[in-house]
Amino acid sequence: MKSKQFIIPILLFLSLFACTLIENKQFINITITLFWLYAMSTLFLCTAIYLYCFGDFDKKVKNKIANALGNISTRNKYLNVINISSLVLIAFNGWIVSTIVFIVTFMFSRFLIYCAKDKLNY
């Protein structure tokens, strides 16, 4: 199990959990801003990977892209639990619209990764 992919979601979850416990509105605002940055960067990177798969490259480069996509886990249950717990805490703190945007963003980014894997026949 690779722990690198858990670092940012766990830190965001822990900061959100801490600010929910201490009920500090400024800390909640900062944490939600970090969630927005995380969601938008995820969407940007997944879109770039998807568009990169349509490039006209030789077999060696296509194999490297396919191996990199193989390392991206979209069915990691621990990461899903962390993300869902974070979304529940965001909704609990009253950020309903942000919760909906994050759900759509994460689902769309997973869709792009699935399409990229399908494009490369991985």
UniProtKB/TrEMBL annotation:
Residues spanning the membrane: 34-54, 87-113
Question: What UniProt keywords are attached to this protein's entry?
Answer: Membrane, Transmembrane, Transmembrane helix
This chain belongs to the protein called Uncharacterized protein
Upper classification of the organism: Bacteria, Pseudomonadati, Pseudomonadota, Gammaproteobacteria, Orbales
